Input
Amino acid sequence: MKIIDDSRIYLIAAVTALAVAVILAAVACYSILSVEPKVEQLLSAKDNVSASYKKAYLILRDPQVFAGYGNFDAEGVSVKNSLAFFDKRVYNGEEIDTNRKAYLELLLERRKKGSVLTRNTMVFFLVLSLVFWALFIQERRSSGQ
Amino acid sequence: MIMKNIQTALIAILGTGVVFIGCAKMPEKLVSPTLKIEPVIQDNKELFKLSLSTGIQNENSDTAFVDMKGLIVFKDGKTRVLTVPFHLPIVLPFDTGIIEAEKTFTESEVMPLVVLLGSDREKLLNEKVLERSFIDEKNIGLELTGCEKKNILDVLKDKVNENN
Output
């Protein structure tokens, strides 16, 4: 009976899953290490609050890839309303005072959830890749190469 | 060979992305149209002033409609009864652009609409006003003649830079 060598399939699957994990890691790291601290810093500003909040909002208006603003469940309605509110404020050149900070934090929270989801998905693909690497090594050993 | 396949796949994925980005959802219907027709005298002529209040909803999350122009069309089946032009400078995402249009028409122009709304000339002249808050969707429509779609982030950044 002919033994089928599946090592090539395992190798491709392992490399693909690893590539996806690397891309997701880059996306998660960029948000966690660069974007979120920058927004937090702007939101903690004591001087020139309105300008800092507007800068923070412009950063938050570009959503994290896993926390887009396209679809909202019942919980997300407050995010949708916040976007409509801040878009209008910024467009009309109106001030954003400290009373509105909580709504900006809501948007930041959504971005953070997106980052966590990206990180978890990255871990999933990493584990998947490891499984395929293990299968690949086992297949190579069993085929005596 | 493998590189060529990867390149083809990437081009297809990016192409699909570009198509989706370009497909902002355009408004198709008017929000709560209310209408008022009143007889007025202008330059010793009996005319009819039509006041229309309605809204256009932008359901997109990241696209702003800039310089939106169009017509509000009153229709009886497929026949156009009357059109009212409108212009909105901008409708932001998740927002409703409010249209407050006012236009004066001659009797021959406005009467088909008056009849469509279940009234007639005598009734209108006696009551001095015809008001409708609920207009059947099949009798009123929206036709866009011009609209620029802009990314909200670009619009807001331009505005912030303009104000600084």
